Amino acid sequence: MSGLEVFLDETPGEVRGVIARDGRFEHLLIQRHDDVLEHRLGARSVGRVAEVHPGLKGAFVDLGTVAAGFLPFRGQDRLAGGQKVEVEVTAEPREGKGPTLRLIGAGEGAPRLLSPGPTVAETLARLAPGVAPVAGLAAIRAGREAEEEAARPGERFPDTGLDLRVERTRALIAVDLDLAPGPGVSFGAQARTRANRQGLYEAARLIRLKRWGGLTAIDLIGTGQDGEVVMAAARQAFGGDPEVVFGPVNRFGVLQLALPWRRTPLEEVLNGPDGRRRPEQRAQDIVRSLRAGLLSNTGAPRISLRCAPGDAAHAAPWVAELGPRAHLIADPAIAPGAFTCEEG
Hints:
With 344 residues, the chain is an alpha+beta fold. 27% of the residues lie in helices and 33% in strands. The chain contains 7 helices and 18 strands. Strands 4, 5, 6, 7, 8 and 9 form a 6-stranded antiparallel sheet that branches.
């Protein structure tokens, strides 16, 4: 596990976990105080079969929450309406849909949570066993930088000339690999192979960071690809997950694969349907920035943050947990989402 760095930011109201490998971010985990515990990945609940849907080969299960979960049938699974079942979340909600479930067995009693999913700290320990997480100001910075990188659609790599672009539509994830002209960039067969290998690795990393899944189409550099070479590089880049399904490279130089959905896409965690920051997330940005100010200036008797009144109202309960040095000022002159941090 050399080259791994783990960060744990336990800011009041929202816990973040970050994993970086060789200085490149791979995972950004977020759990908030207002999460629906029954919908978290790995949560186990007793549910009631609300509707069996033969056309979808599954059933909708009432978990006692606003949104029902969907339970795909496997093999000889047969359920009836009203039946009580014990289920586990295998994929968190996304795009207005409830969580995806796995059947554990028969259930008893009213719909209820039996056990929440793993905490951020527990997930970090599973993904990076034996690596102690870094906390404090470094963890806050890592979370911010990982979020900023996840928001970018791609990157250029001057060493190989790779130009990477990763985008998601309703139908699939589209990955475009290209060679951009530059000093020392070669366009020969070996250079294309090297850039394709790097592109597969970086695309897999960025997709993990964005927390995306589904059908994925990767437009490789050049045509007439050596299928075995490409497949070996793809398995190494996306490997370690038995649920990834690889398709062949077609004659147009496009590799297709299917990635399992697991967590809510990062953009849905942070932003509303309009693409703008959620009010709850703006409040967490305020609390995190104020905490960063406290940690970076331990000698100041008070650190104050000015923000819009609505944001201040959302953030106030969590700011109170930061202690007496933290001070929040509601300023009508400041636009929602904006804030300033100052000493005194």
